Amino acid sequence: MENNTNFRRFFGASLTILGIIVVLFALIAFLSDGKPVMGLSVNKAESAAPFIVGMIFLVTGVNLVREA
After folding, report:
1. Could you read off the pLDDT of 1-50 as tens digits, one per residue?
2. Do residues 61 and 14 touch, judged by C-beta distance below 8 A?
3. CA neighbor of 18 nearest in space, from 62, 66, 67, 48
4. CA-CA distance, 68 to 28, in Å (whole number)?
5. What is the value of pTM for the model shown?
6. 24: domain range?
7. What is the rounded distance in angstroms from the CA atom of residue 5 to the CA atom of residue 17?
8. Could you give the angle at which helices 48-67 and 2-31 cross, rounded to 10 degrees?
9. How far apart are CA 41 and CA 54, in angstroms?
10. Rounded distance between C-alpha atoms, residue 49 and residue 4, angstroms
11. Domain count of the fold of the chain
């Protein structure tokens, strides 16, 4: 049972970190005024998708860590 708890904590921490990175990317892309960000050209409307995905990863990761 302890193996499962450790895996959930590790996976939750990984999802949380990934979520933070994706949310930060979406916020930088939103503020960039159409200039390429890390080689990707993302306009304001397209920056909503990474933000939503990042928030899903972040919330899921925090819940996994909290419940483990």
Report:
1. 677 888 999 999 999 999 999 999 998 888 887 788 788 787 777 888 99
2. yes
3. 62
4. 32
5. 0.85
6. 2-67
7. 18
8. 160
9. 18
10. 32
11. 1
